[in-house]
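chain below, 160 aa
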Amino acid sequence: MANRVLVSMQEGLSEPAWFSNIEPFVQLALEKIGYDGEELSILFCNDPFIQELNKTYRDIDSPTDVLSFENGDEYQDEEGEWFNAGDIAISLETLPKNAEYFEVDKNTELKRLLVHGILHLNGYDHGEEHIEKNQEPVCEMLVLQEQVLKELNDKIIFTE
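prediction:
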């Protein structure tokens, strides 16, 4: 089978030049992790939008880089049976700040946010541990995230 990846922009924001590169990358990441028959959506937004989501759903009144909202429902259509993994929101304003902090390019950071969101949709959690500069992660989710990112290191999504 395959996976369904729906990519959209917050209303009022223009699609960046690299927008069409998201779905193929996410398909490849899902395949590398071993997911099949999943449906997920990705919304690119600004900081005020993701801050409102963060406040509403996590009671944290500040913007963040990525949020994942698990669904977990299954449904069937003419193409087969699907697992609705859920929705991912990524702030286009926090992305470059993260890239600068981690001293990586925007392409590398965007891939990290996408893989991070995918893993959260599939039940992974990292508790209080976060990726830190110059430190190797120890929890299962972040170790898997970094492994997948190494395998997809040569893939280009973000183009200025």
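The first helix runs from residue 22 to 33. Helices lie at 22-33, 47-58, 94-102, 106-121, 140-151.
thats it, cya
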